[in-house]
């Protein structure tokens, strides 16, 4: 079977030695043809050797590439492990975040409840303050009414005592007749001969005689005659309610000081039951 030629029409390496043997041991051939065949053989051998070297280089390159691929595969495996670990951590973080979110939701719910409670307490406090203000206003009104009633009561007392004088210093005896004793005292010590009309006469602790006159003119007459008792232990004074007596006691020192300065002063009662100091 004839040797095949390559695609380019060149002779194969097995055909070239055969032709070379024919040249050496067979038929006579031209030397240039032989040399040409030898040269072609050498070129073929050089080409094959180059191809073999390239194959070795390619083999080395493939080996290096395989090593690199193995290294890359290992790195990919490590990266996959890292990704799995990261995913695990992300899952844990998501679980923790979910738990934290629940905590925040619970805190927010409690905060909202506290805010609602505070708002409710503030409303109750406002209502309480309003009620307290209303109560204070009512108390103030009651105090004002009380003062008005007290003033009216004192005024009524003053009106009821308008015809009453208090005689102090008169000696007391058992089973005495206060009115008869008072008449004799007025006649003898106060030198009033006018027949006086008493509504009622009685002693009161600490045992002065309280006399109620039927006529204010009689009271005024006796009161004016009180100056005759100056220097004695007797005394005649207008009867006043306890509140007014307390105010008078505060004004007595001022009145005495004014009288020492030769000022004429008297204590009078105005419509508001005050006892102002006025010049006489």
From TrEMBL:
Residues 104-145 form a coiled coil. It comes from the Eukaryota. The keyword Coiled coil applies. Keywords: Coiled coil. Gene3D superfamilies: 1.10.287.1490. The keyword Coiled coil applies. Residues 1-21 are annotated as: Disordered. This is L1 transposable element RRM domain-containing protein.
């Amino acid at each position: 079977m004839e040797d095949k030629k390559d695609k380019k029409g060149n002779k194969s390496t097995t055909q070239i030695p055969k032709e070379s043997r024919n040249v050496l041991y067979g038929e006579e051939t031209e030397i240039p043809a032989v040399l040409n065949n030898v040269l072609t053989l050498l070129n073929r051998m050089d080409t094959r050797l180059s191809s073999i070297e390239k194959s070795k280089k390619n083999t080395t390159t493939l080996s290096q590439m395989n090593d690199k691929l193995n290294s890359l595969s290992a790195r990919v495996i490590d990266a996959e492990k890292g990704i799995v670990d990261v995913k695990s951590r992300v899952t844990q973080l998501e679980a923790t975040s979910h738990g934290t979110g629940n905590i925040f939701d619970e805190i927010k719910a409690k905060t909202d409840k506290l805010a609602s409670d505070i708002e409710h307490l503030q409303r109750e406090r406002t209502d309480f303050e309003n009620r307290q203000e209303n109560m204070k206003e009512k108390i103030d009104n009651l105090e004002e009414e009380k003062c008005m009633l007290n003033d009216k009561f004192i005024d009524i007392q003053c009106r009821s005592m308008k015809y009453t004088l208090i005689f102090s210093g008169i000696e007391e005896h058992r089973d005495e007749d206060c009115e008869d004793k008072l008449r004799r005292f007025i006649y003898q010590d106060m030198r009033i001969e006018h027949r006086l009309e008493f509504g009622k006469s009685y002693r009161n602790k600490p045992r002065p005689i309280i006399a109620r006159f039927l006529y204010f003119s009689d009271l005024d007459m006796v009161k004016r005659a009180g100056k005759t008792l100056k220097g004695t232990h007797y005394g005649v004074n207008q009867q006043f309610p306890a509140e007014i007596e307390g105010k008078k006691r505060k004004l007595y020192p001022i009145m005495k000081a004014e009288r020492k300065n030769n000022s004429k002063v008297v204590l009078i009662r105005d419509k508001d039951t005050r006892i102002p100091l006025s010049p006489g």
